[in-house]
């Protein structure tokens, strides 16, 4: 509709669609959107959606349309050209966003400290809830449990907001005797089509927190099946505020978002784990690494680049010096072996 309004310059849309093959006007549309305050990635999304609409228009033209098919092809080519011209600005913006995300990475020490403090505090909150399940204490529990899970798995907030009591019950029923934990399959989340249900593995202790809460929850008798719910029995849309309150209550620095947890954990998994383990972690997080990997490679840290610099030096080292390097390595190996034998 934005495109049609722009093309007709606010006039009533003509049924014959003869306003459509105005290539000069089409080429002006991306600039118009940018001037309206849309960012490059959003403008590209508009153009991609428009190209899909035009493909439908080409294959199923309106009965009143008088636009020749060749003209429709020209329009589609013009839109494709606009998408191509945006490629570089889009990449630059994505790199900038990736760099900003990485600059907000939460230190691993704080992630660990968060879990230690939350593990100690959650049983206390549950005890308070068992005495009086007032809304304020419930919100405190939601905040602590969400920050605990976020600091461990980096799931999107939708995974927590959409978790149901039925899914918790299902995890209990599917557990086998001797299992060290329970698997909760949250079916409703942002990327369920690509990854299926988001899985949360909780230890016996962690799962017991949910079980205690569900018993307390039964006394409240909400009309919703959600694990986290508001006083009006609706989804907790502002779970981030509760999570940040719990984070601050533990005395930890900063005001992290769920995205900060997700980016941090994904980055540490990439840096520390093997490729196979990293792939498993990413899949469990329902995280598509392809785009992230592409832009991560352009923002290596100083130690990473120093290591790569050594590889460059080795690659261009003259052949007569390579032998001395090999001899040095051989001597070091022999020295290590002698030290080992003496020991």
How does this structure look, described?
The chain is mainly alpha-helical and 343 residues long. It has three domains: 2-85; 106-294, hpI Integrase, Chain A (Orthogonal Bundle), CATH 1.10.443; 302-342. 69% of the residues lie in helices and 3% in strands. It has 17 helices and two strands. The chain has helices spanning 2-8, 23-35, 40-59, 69-85, 87-103, 108-131, 135-153, 157-161, 165-174, 192-195, 204-220, 239-249, 258-272, 275-284, 289-296, 302-315, 319-342, and strands at 181-186, 198-203. A two-stranded antiparallel sheet has the order 1-2. Helix 2 (23-35) runs parallel beside helix 4 (69-85), helix 6 runs antiparallel to helix 7 (135-153) and helix 6 runs parallel beside helix 11 (204-220). The longest helix has 24 residues, at 108-131. The radius of gyration is 28 Å and the shape is extended. The model is unreliable at 295-299 and 329-343 (pLDDT under 50).
Mean pLDDT: 81
Q: Could you name the CATH topology of the largest domain?
A: hpI Integrase, Chain A
Whole-number tally of structural domains: 3
Radius of gyration: 28 Å
CATH class category name of the largest domain: Mainly Alpha
Q: What helical percentage do the residues reach?
A: 55-70%
**Count the helices. How many?**
17
Uncertain segments of ≥5 residues (pLDDT<50)? Answer: 295-299, 329-343
The number of E-state strands comes to 2
Strands of the widest sheet, in order across it, are 1-2
* Main sheet specs: 2 strands, antiparallel
| Structural class assignment | mainly alpha
Give the ordered list of helices and strands: HHHHHHHHHEHEHHHHHHH
Which percent band covers the strand fraction? Answer: under 5%
First-to-last CA distance: 79 Å
What overall geometry do the principal axes of the alpha carbons give? Answer: extended
CATH-scheme architecture of the largest domain: Orthogonal Bundle
């Amino acid at each position: 509709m934005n495109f049609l309004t722009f093309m007709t310059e606010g006039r009533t849309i003509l049924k014959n669609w003869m306003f459509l093959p105005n290539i000069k006007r089409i080429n002006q549309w991306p600039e118009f959107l940018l001037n309206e305050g849309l960012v490059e990635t959003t403008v590209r999304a508009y153009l991609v959606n428009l190209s899909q609409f035009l493909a439908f228009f080409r294959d199923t033209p309106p009965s009143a349309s008088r636009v020749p098919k060749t003209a429709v092809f020209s329009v589609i080519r013009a839109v494709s050209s606009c998408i191509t011209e945006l490629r570089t600005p889009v990449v630059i913006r994505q790199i900038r966003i990736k760099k900003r995300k990485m600059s907000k990475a939460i230190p691993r020490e704080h992630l660990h400290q968060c879990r230690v403090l939350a593990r100690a505090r959650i049983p206390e909150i549950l005890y308070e809830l068992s005495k009086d399940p007032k809304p304020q204490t419930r919100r405190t529990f939601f905040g602590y449990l969400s920050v605990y899970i976020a600091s461990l798995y980096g799931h999107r907030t939708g995974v927590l907001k959409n978790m149901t009591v039925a899914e918790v019950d299902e995890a209990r029923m599917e557990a086998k005797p001797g299992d060290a934990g329970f698997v909760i399959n949250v079916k409703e989340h942002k990327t369920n089509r690509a990854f299926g249900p988001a899985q949360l593995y909780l230890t016996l202790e962690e799962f017991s927190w949910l079980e205690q809460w569900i018993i307390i929850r039964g006394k409240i008798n909400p009309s919703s099946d959600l694990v986290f719910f508001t006083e009006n029995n609706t989804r907790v849309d502002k779970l981030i505020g509760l999570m940040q309150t719990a984070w601050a209550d533990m005395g930890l620095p900063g005001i992290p978002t769920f995205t900060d947890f997700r980016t941090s954990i994904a980055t540490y998994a990439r840096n520390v784990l093997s490729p196979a383990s990293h792939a498993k972690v990413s899949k469990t997080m329902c995280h598509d690494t392809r785009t992230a990997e592409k832009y991560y490679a352009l923002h290596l840290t100083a130690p990473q680049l120093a290591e790569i610099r050594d590889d460059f030096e080795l690659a261009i080292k003259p052949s007569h010096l390579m032998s001395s390097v090999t001899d040095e390595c051989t001597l070091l190996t022999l020295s290590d072996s002698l030290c080992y034998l003496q020991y």
